[in-house]
Amino acid sequence: MRFLKFFFLIICIGGLIEKTYAYNAAGVLGQPDFTSNTPGTAPNKLYWPQWLASENDGLWVVDSQNSRILFFNASNGITSNQDAVTVIGQPNMFTSSSVVEFNGSNFGYPQQLFMDGPDNPVFLADWSGSRVLMYQYADFINGRSAIHVFGQPNFTTATGDTAQNKLKNPRGVLYDRDTQRLYVADTLNSRILVFDLSSGITDGMNAAYVLGQMNFSSNTPGLSQNKLRTVSGLSLDSSRGLLFVADLNNHRVLAFDVSSGISNGMNAEYVFGQPDFTTSSISQPLNRMREPRNVKYMPSHDVLLVADSLNNRLLGYNLFSGITSGMSPSFVIGQTTFSSNTAATSQSGLNAPRGLAFDEANNRLFVTEMNNHRVVWFDLPYISAPSMNAAYLDEPFSLPLLPPSRIQGAPTSSLLSGSLPSGITLSSSSLSGSPTQLGDYTFTLRGGDDLGSAGVIPTAPKAISLKVAKRPTSSSVPIGLTTLTQSLTLSPSHDVIFTASNTLPLQIVVAPGSSLNFSILATSTPTSTRVNLPAPISASFLNVSLTLPSSTTLFASSSWDGIFTLPTPVSTSSISTSSVISQIIEIGSPIFHLSSNKAARIFFETSDRPGYLDEAGNIVPILTLCAADTQAAADALPEGGDCFIPVGSGLAIWTKHFSKFLFYSSGQTVMVPAALTPPVSTTQPQPLSSQPSSPASTTAATPTSASSSPNNPPQGASYRFTKPLSLGSRGEEVRQLQLRLIQEGLLASNLATGYFGKLTRAAVQKYQLNYKIVKDATDPGFGRVGPKTRGLLNEQGRGR
């Protein structure tokens, strides 16, 4: 009996013990495998690598002891033990010569490399030269000379000193392109120098500010809220205006608030790794550090990473939960618990981690390990679910959120904002259930990989949209059988299965809710579904008629079920606007974005103005006057385009997209041409404001001349993009994207239609490749406007 009680006690205690997971790296560079750590000088070897920078087409590694910088090409993916393809600082891959005489083309024992895309300069901290070198991006990647030097009066001097224009063995460097400030970790002077580059750059120029010292002539290390001791890496949280500094020999990280300006010797705002600003203990509770070498703020995740070097680990701080001095880290990599600090040469262990780089496009974290002479990378978790999703009322729905290949512990998911549809529940890794209420739902989720005693590695948050609609219920009627005539009258809520055998024209008299079922004709790929119509189709409902020509191809996302809604009236009461809407007719799908290669003709008995509703429910006028009421003229419309033309007592709309079409009238001035003459190609649809427009807003503006006002939305260059866009999206944000792509020379000038079609996707792909936002066509974000593409568009807009 005692034995059974003891055994039961052991089981109970074991159930309370938290699980531990070894978080494994996905790959390694500089070594043939995870258990080797021999230094070397070769295309696939490293010797004391210190820092690195991730560009979307590859990785730059600062191989310090070899006095060189290597580039590993990742445009076709990155693999373990691959060779570098470019070397800078040495004549070839097999030499490691030290600098004898300094100039603008060499460096000695290089440290932090700062790169921020091809539109910004490159900066390199040169330890042995006591200087920072500045390069044009193209010059650096092609091995050409630096164009400016900081810390020395010219490229040939290399003496360290303590002055306003001098440096002593700098390690860290960071450039803030928004403020044009250059931050330099002047390591052996125990300070940060801040250079203001907004008024021009000269070699050996004076710094504008100093942090860590009260003036430019002192370099005494100290332990306080405004003192530093042998500083190292730097990183910046631009949204909060926080400059993170690895205060190496004080065993902590300080955060300075530079959002409202900088003053010499100013106090830090927060401290990490110590309980307060006057402690520098290296004991091993979870919130202590030991010689942190580098910091990396990940804006997409709102997480601060610290290379806690002599504790042989990375610490992650979830800043989205709030920031307090002495706060505990949220997760650890390189150790299985927060209380261990063993150095290791293995797939999950680290030995003196130094450099940190994050590839946002692939959710991949790169780490240099000085004593293992290697770079390892970790494939972090992310939410893979599409941004736009659809479900049918009272039907089972399931949406996986986290790729299993990115989870090494246990998956987690949480709802950050918004609400889920009734009947849908959130589990640790998916959304599932049967929705019980119609509507459009938008919510934000965050996932994670729960490593037990090592904490939870979070994903970036992701906004998810879910449209719940009612599936047409019907008894299906096959088309193409000899027992059926070419003319059909559909009763309410019936659909028709359209087959390839039907090659003769089909005439349909529509009842509300009727639809065509093209599922038999559908062909799908992982990203899209298309339907090729073998015969023309005409459908009529009261005062509306629709014609789809033969050889029409319909395009939609891969989840389209092939159901095509025939003209169906929609209530006008749901639209809030000062315009008087006479009718809304839905054609295509209430859920999926449908487009076509040929123009469909929709005729309405009305004298009102035509338009359609975009994704956000905005009224977008149809402005372009058709050249003629013919199929040939309409087929010349751009992808996703539309036009209108008066015909007798009504209007014909020719369109290559399908939506909720509407007709409206009001006393307000709308951007419809007063004379029915073809507008110039720069005239584009504008969402209607709920407030009356001024007469001046009737003039269409070109992308380069538009101004911003409530009734004249910002055009292209200055517009701020806020949501994900992809194939099938439509509305004002798409139109502004197209204006920007036109300005970039990537899209024809007549294609600012407000519809995201194949031509727009191709232009986005070119834009992403030009600016190295993605590495190649295999990138999951290729052709989509996600956080990184949207961020660059907004940053470029601020500078125009």
Structural summary, described in words:
- The protein starts with a helix and ends with a helix.
- The longest helix has 15 residues, at 2-16.
- Strands 34, 36, 38, 39, 40, 41, 42, 45, 48 and 49 form a 10-stranded mixed β-sheet that branches. An 8-stranded mixed β-sheet has the order 33-35-37-43-44-50-46-47, with no helix packed on it. Strands 25, 27, 30, 31 and 32 form a 5-stranded mixed β-sheet that branches.
- The chain has 6 helices and 50 strands.
- It is mostly beta strands.
- It has 4 domains: 48-379, 6 Propeller (Neuraminidase), CATH 2.120.10.30; 388-469, Immunoglobulin-like (Sandwich); 477-688, no CATH class; 732-798, Orthogonal Bundle (Muramoyl-pentapeptide Carboxypeptidase, domain 1), CATH 1.10.101.
Roughly what fraction of the amino acids lie in strands?
25-35%
- What is the CATH C-level name of the largest domain? Mainly Beta
What general outline do the C-alpha atoms trace? elongated
- N/C terminus separation: 81 Å
Task: Classify the helix fraction into a percent range.
Answer: under 10%
Question: Could you say what the CATH architecture of the largest domain is?
Answer: 6 Propeller
Instruction: Provide the CATH superfamily of the largest domain.
Output: TolB, C-terminal domain
Poorly predicted segments: 1-16, 473-486, 667-716
Topology-level CATH name of the largest domain: Neuraminidase
* Derived structural class: mainly beta
Tell me the count of domains: 4
The total of beta strands comes to: 50
Gyration radius over CA: 31 Å
Largest sheet: 10 strands, mixed
Mean pLDDT equals 83
Helix run count: 6
